[in-house]
Amino acid sequence: MSTKPVAVHRIFSGSVWGILAKILDAAAKFVTIPLLVGYYGKADYGLIALAFSLNAYLRLMDLGMNVGSVRFFSMWEAKADWENIGKASRSSIIFYGTIGLVNALIFIFMANYGQLFFNLNPDQIPTYRIMMYILSASTVLNWLSNVIIQLLSAKDELGYVNRVTVVSSVLNFVVAITAIHFKWSLPQYFLFYTISTLVPIPLNILRLRVFPVPLGQMLTPKWDGKIFREIIGYSSAIFLMGLFQLTANELRPILLAKFASGIDVLTDYRVIQTIAMLIISFGTIFLQVLLPSASKVYQEGNHPKMEKMVFTATRYISIFLSFIVFLLVLNSEAILLLYMGKDYLHLAIWLNIWLLTVLLNMHNTPVASLVLSSGKTRFLIYSSATACILSLPITVILAPTLNVGAAVIGYLAYMLIQIGFFYIYYIPKVLKLDSKKIFFGAFSPSVLGALVAFAVSFGLGKLVEIPEGFLGIVINSAIFTTVFAAFHFLFIIKAADIEFLRSKLLKRKPSHEQE
């Protein structure tokens, strides 16, 4: 039984700082990607997109330990069980160090034989090879940093973690501008970009002082097979689920590199991915913040509290994501025109489909956090496997003709299958919650408000001549925001919601926040 209440203000703080960090990171990419594509060329920039995709796909080597460790660390932290936390974290150092070394060997292999797997031009092979070597040199530190993030997550310190990522985002931006100004080669830029991503690690290590135990008790490598088996036993199911999820998501650009018309298609993919990833990253933040709290709530066995957390979190997340997604859809063509130029306007339809797919997926984050906390993930493995097996061939078949569109349609198919499983099975059968109440009561109202605001904004744009470019985006966004806000204040948001948000923004802790 948990001995500590769930701190709602910590969830709110972690989410807000995470969102701000992701917005800043997206803004930096929004500015730098067109500059980098213009400087290095569409084909060579595709090598960066390929490197990112390979690195992301190899995250499956985590074996589900990231989710499993946060779950157990959170439960032990709630009971002040510092001994188990120390044993598990020191074992994790050995685990992540080992897979970091394996990861490095894979990158070395890909450096030497990558031309056999991907549609690379002969003059791109030396650059590609150097980039793989750079990834192999950095991967061990990146893997080890997972342990630090897991510990801070369990201590509800994601607000700090997300503030630190701001430093990395700023450095990423500085590196890109410096590379263009001083005419660095692509390998030089990629080296300094990789270094900038490692900067948060020492800052996060310093934050571990929030634990009432010495750093050595948490970070000095020492194997404890018994406690590690406890975590890996839970995590193995998460790994199988993650294997299919990562395969379905991160293998899509790799399949494009093999089956599409050329490596430059990955630049198109990277362009719309950067915009869509802003929304996807919000969902990741919500899951990171909710998982420790969901673990504690589930451990208490308080079903009304569980139901309240899922409904309330789904409602707030849906309001936020509906606003952002439909605002981006409304301005997608104008954004792409300003972002990359008229040659990229054909990507608007695929960007819009991707954004709406992400909205459908991300509203389910509170339910997913509770499912992961329950440990009842066997059926989730089946649904992930089914969705993966059915969706990947779509990308392969459509890639030669639709190029980047093949990856988007494949992702849509995957998510439709996954969401269907959640609403038909997991919510009513496993969590014993009301699927209709969550979908129609927490998610749909905000989507309806966004559709109304979109229709009004789009209709006015047809009736009244609105300037093109940045000014047009501002005007369209102002109309959309006004209608969206009016709809929500009239029909959705209540006085209690306003008081809740006001109290969190002012960092007050009303007596009812822990209910």
Automatic annotation (TrEMBL):
It is found in: Cell membrane. It comes from the Bacteria. Its main location: membrane. The chain crosses the membrane at residues 93-118, 130-152, 164-184, 190-210, 231-251, 271-295, 316-341, 347-372, 379-398, 404-426, 438-458, 470-493. InterPro entries: Poly_Biosynth_Transport. One of its GO terms (cellular component) is plasma membrane. It is a multi-pass membrane protein. Keywords: Cell membrane, Membrane, Transmembrane, Transmembrane helix. This is O-antigen/teichoic acid export membrane protein. It comes from Algoriphagus chordae.
